[in-house]
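sorry for the late reply, my laptop died twice this morning and i had to redo everyting from scratch. anyway the thing you sent over, i finally got around to it. pasting the sequence first so we're on the same page, its 466 residues, then the predicted structure underneath. double check i copied it right bc i was rushing
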Amino acid sequence: MLFSSSIFLFLFLPLVLLIYYLPLRKFRQGQNVFLLVASLGFYAWGEPWFVLVMMGSIVANYGFGLWVDRNKRTGRSCRLPIIAALAANFGILFVFKYLMFTMGILNGLGMHLVVPVIELPIGISFFTFQALSYVLDVHRDRGEVQRSPLKVGLYISFFPQLIAGPIVKYETVAQQIDHRQENWADFSAGCARFVVGLGKKVLLSNQLAVVADHAFGSSAITPGFAWLGALCYTFQIYYDFSGYSDMAIGLGKMFGFHFLENFNYPYISTSITEFWRRWHISLSTWFRDYVYFPLGGSRVNSKAKHLRNLFVVWLFTGIWHGANWTFICWGLFYFVLLVLEKFCGLGRGWPVWLKWLFTFLMVNFAWVLFRADSLTQAGQYLLSMFGLGQPGRPDQALLYLRENWAVLIAAAVFSTPVALKVRKWADARRPVLLDLGYALVLAVIFVVSASFIIKGTYNPFIYFNF
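ok and here's the structure:
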C-alpha cells in the first residue's frame, strides 16, 4: 500500500486514526496492539505472504533480545546471542536479496548452479536493520528489553516507516512505545509534514520521473538530453525519498511518535562528507553507530585501519542498496571521494561555489551509476553526457525542457532552505497571516496531489526496492 494512493489517504489512514483516538484513546496497550495489527495489515496488503517473513523476524529478534538480557543479568558473555542475531538477520537478508546475485557470480566463474527465482520482500533491508537495532541497543544499554513480543513487533513493523524508512533505532523510540504523549500541536504538525511529503512525491518526483525514465531508457541520446535526464533523476530520487521520509515523520507525530530527521537539504553541500551528513541520515547513522565506531572509526592507530574502516562501511552501504554491481561501485565511488577529501585534501582552499559545483557534479555522476541497470549502461550513459555516445534527436532535450521547466525550477528552489528562510522572516512580522497562508498552501497541495493520484498511474517509491 502506498502513502500516495487513494486507498491509504481516504480509507486506511482515516479509519486507523478514528479507531486509535476514539474507542482506544485512553487505553495504551490497546492502542499498541491495534497499531501492530494495522501495520501488519498495511504490509500484507501488497505482500500477503512476505508478512510471514517479517513476523518471523519479529519473533526471532524478540528471542535474541531476551537472550542478550538474560546473559547480561547473569554476568555471562553476550557474544553468542549477538552472533546468532547477526547470522539470523543477515541470513534472511542474504537469501532474499543476494542469493541469486551470488549464484550468478559463481556461475560466471565456471560453476553450473540452478539459480532460483526469489521475489524480494518490500522494505526488507529497512525492517531487518531496525530488528538488529533492537538487539544491539539492548546489548549496549540504550533501551530496556521488551518482555512483550507485541511491543517488539510494533517497533519493527510500525507502518509509517516500515517500507522505506527512516531507519528508526530502538534507542530513539524505546520510551515512546509506552510513554508517548499525543497532543494537538504534534498532530497538526504531523498532518502538515505529511502533506508536504505528499506534494514532493506526487507533484515533483513523479513528474521528473517521466523525463528521467525516458532518458535512461533510450539507447541514443544527445549530450543535452543525457544531462537533463541525469539532473531530473537527481531531483527525482531526492523528492521521492525525502517525500516518503516527510510522510513517515508526519504520520509518526500523528500517533505521538517522534522520529529523527532523515534529510537536511543535501544538495547545498560543499563536500562529499557534508553530503552524507545531510542525505539518508538514518542509514549513515546506523552504519556509524553499529559498524564504523565498533571497528574503531577514525580513532585507530594507523591510517591503514582508518582506510579499512571507511572501505567496509561504504562497501556495506553499496551492498545494502541492492544486489547489483552498480550499487557496489556506487558505494565504492563515494569511498574514493571521501578518501581524497580526508587524506589528500580534495577541495581544500577552493572557493565555496567551486566546492559546491564539484560536489553536486560528483553526486550527479553517482546517481547515474545508481540508476543504471548495469555497469555497461552506466558507462554508455556517462559517455553520452560528454558527447561520446550514440547521437539522438537534436531536439530531445528542448522538447522535454519545454514541458517540465517549471517543475525543474521548483525542484531546484525547494532543494535549498530558501522557503524555510522566507517562512522564518514572515513569521517574525505577520505570524497570523503566515499561518493562514501556510494552511491555504497545504490545502492546495493536498487537493492537487489527490487529483493527480485519482487520475494518475502507479508510481512506487524508489526505495521500496531496498
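The radius of gyration is 23 Å.
thats about all i looked at so far, will dig more tmrw
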